[in-house]
Specification:
Elements (H helix, E strand, L loop, with lengths): L4 H19 L5 H12 L11 H5 L6 H13 L3 H9 L4 H4 L7 H11 L4 H10 L10 H11 L8 E2 H19 L2 E5 H4 L4 E2 L1 E7 L3 H10 L5 E4 L4 E5 L5 E7 L4 H9 L2 H8 L7 H7 L14 H4 L10 E5 L11 H10 L4 E4 L13 H12 L7 E4 L2 E3 L10 H4 L5 E4 L8 H12 L4 E4 L17 H10 L3 E5 L9 H9 L3 E5 L11 H10 L13 H8 L2
Parallel strand pairs: 4-7, 8-9, 9-10, 11-12, 12-13, 13-14, 14-15
Antiparallel strand pairs: 1-3, 2-4, 5-6, 6-7
Helix pairs in contact: 1-2, 1-5, 8-9, 13-14, 13-15, 20-21
The structure holds zinc ion (2 copies).
Length: about 550
């Protein structure tokens, strides 16, 4: 299939953004501008036959991008991209996120070792060739190997990246075609790794959507597969499947596109429905949350929902170095979410980038005591750091002025299993610790989980009825679902937390709940779904 000029240019601009970001140590404003311009190209003629005046009147396209368009029109390529491609690996977006990676090292990987992909780097580590990298030791290489092995296969993208791309594409299509686009598939079911982005485009103008997707600069490729299904790839190489449905069948199409297949096929046999709820009703069932669709029906009907949540037990205010909310903003948001209680958990001072010490916590206690008047009970806690030996970084006298704390590992991620397990068990024995924050410390595709004897940690948590946090950041989802299931079987309780640092992140609790839904955990096992009095009884156990 012939690629239109606009799309071919978009592919180069996307790569230019990737490699510019790889080449710059700090956040690259140039890379951001290139990326934004790719999303703007759909305003232009597919052959890029536009004059400068029209170009500069297009949102997202300034003189720099206009110059690149004119270079591309006359040369068919971009000189700056050619130079960067010779100096940086093709898979720089992934490789640059490895710990201790720098632009200099990335470039050495390409120029000295010929590394383009993560497989290339893995084999350079295996053969020992990577030891020639300047300033990189065995421990770092070993960590890189472990991180590169986290993805289940080259076609998989981590949940957070897949979500961001899905959302960007859905918004793009909605804005250009004025129709509804719903994210489906593994992203909607909140799988940790996603092999294809799936979208359902709801419209009566099916041909118009097909034409738009076939030509859009936002995608590297998109062709009609069968019926009203379009299949293609993003500029990052990820598979995209878009089902285009009239509103009258949208519920049925969405169930099919969300999967998993065994669940979908049982509902689809019933015919065409406008909404998912209609389809389930015809099947004699209430609507089933997408993450629970892999469960037997009776188990799926009992899972915790976001509406069950009565509070959030892991929230940072602007008192944390990375926090962006005032207490007032937070309380207003908590009330509008219908929360009955809230635990403020700013970072404490043992953290590498700083946090509250005893004096600051005491001052915060005074400040918060004046705020406890609303319909939502404001509790004062902290996210304390667990040191390498399992001790907390805040003294007991200071802890005694707090309601209770969540404790988390923020350092010494690579201790051996015996030490790491002993460390967590010790921290769980502190009476003020009621929640173990992000228990495995993992970030999907970015940081491996800490090595612990999980059943031993579960036993300690159950003994003191400490809740395992399910952290709702899409790149954490920690506790992971496989371990939620093990902990639930052993009688553990959970806290579905946002770990919000800004207002928009309060909705992370939806992801935490989705993780619990995937393995069929009910509201009775979720401490922040307990009514206030029961919650307080648990907290002060
Ligand atoms: Zn933390
Ligand atoms: Zn936190």
């Amino acid at each position: 299939m012939e690629v239109n000029r606009r799309r071919a240019f978009a592919a180069q601009l996307w790569r230019l953004a990737d490699l510019t970001r790889a080449a710059e140590r700090r956040r690259s404003f140039r890379a951001k501008a290139y990326r934004r311009a790719v999303w703007s190209l759909d305003h232009l003629d597919p052959d890029l036959e536009v004059d400068d005046e029209e170009l500069l009147a297009t949102p997202g396209i300034g003189p720099g991008i206009a110059a690149l368009i004119s270079e591309y029109r006359s040369q068919g390529r971009l000189l700056r991209l050619d130079l960067l491609e010779a100096s940086f690996p093709t898979e720089s977006p992934r490789l640059r996120r490895l710990p201790r990676m720098s632009p200099k090292l990335l470039s050495q990987l390409k120029v000295s070792l010929g590394v383009d992909t993560s497989e290339d780097l893995a084999s350079a580590i295996d053969t020992g060739a990577a030891l020639s990298l300047h300033g990189v030791g065995d421990a770092t290489l070993e960590l890189w190997s472990r991180i590169l092995a986290l993805a289940p296969g080259p076609e998989y993208v981590a949940a957070n990246d897949a979500w961001e791309m899905s959302r960007a594409l859905a918004t793009h299509i909605e804005e250009h075609l004025n129709c509804q686009v719903v994210i489906a598939g593994a992203v909607r079911r909140l799988e940790e790794w996603v092999d294809a982005i799936k979208l359902v485009v709801v419209t009566d103008k099916i041909e118009r959507v097909e034409f738009f997707l076939a030509e859009s600069a936002a995608l590297a490729e998109m062709v009609r597969a069968d019926g009203s299904r379009m299949v293609g790839r993003t500029h990052d190489g990820q598979r995209v499947v878009a089902d285009i449905s009239p509103p009258s069948r949208a519920g049925t199409v969405l169930i099919a596109a969300t999967g998993p297949p065994a669940h979908a096929s049982s509902v689809l046999a019933l015919g065409s429905f406008a909404t998912e709820a209609d389809a389930y009703r015809a099947d004699g069932s209430p609507w089933i949350a997408p993450p629970a669709r892999g469960l037997p029906r009776d188990a799926a009907a009992r899972v915790v929902t976001v509406d069950d949540l009565e509070g959030d037990l892991h929230i940072h205010t602007e008192a944390s170095p990375d926090g962006r909310m005032t207490v007032g903003q937070l309380m207003a948001a908590a009330e509008s979410r219908g929360y009955r209680y809230l635990l403020i958990t700013d970072h404490t001072h043992g953290l590498r980038f700083g946090g509250l010490g005893p004096e600051a916590l005491a001052a915060q206690a005074v400040e918060l005591s004046g705020t406890r008047t609303s319909s939502c009970l404001l509790l004062h806690g902290a996210e304390v750091n667990i040191d390498a030996g399992g001790l907390l970084d805040i003294d007991d006298d200071t802890i005694s002025i707090l309601d209770f704390v969540v404790a988390g590992v923020h350092s010494h991620f690579s201790l051996g299993q015996v030490e790491q397990t002993r460390r967590l068990v010790k921290a769980l024995s502190h009476p003020a610790v009621r929640v173990l924050a992000h228990p495995l410390g993992r970030r999907i595709g970015i940081r491996p989980p800490i090595d612990i004897d999980f059943p031993a940690v579960v036993e300690a948590a159950v003994a003191s009825s400490v809740a395992f946090e399910v952290n709702g950041h899409r790149d954490r989802l920690d506790l992971p679902v496989t371990w939620i299931e093990v902990a639930a079987d052993a009688g553990a309780v959970f806290a579905a937390n946002s770990d919000a640092h800004r207002l928009s992140e309060l909705s992370n609790v939806e992801n935490a709940v989705a993780s619990l839904q995937r393995v069929g955990v009910g509201p009775e096992r979720v401490v922040n779904a307990l009514p206030l009095q029961e919650f307080l009884a648990w907290a002060h156990k």
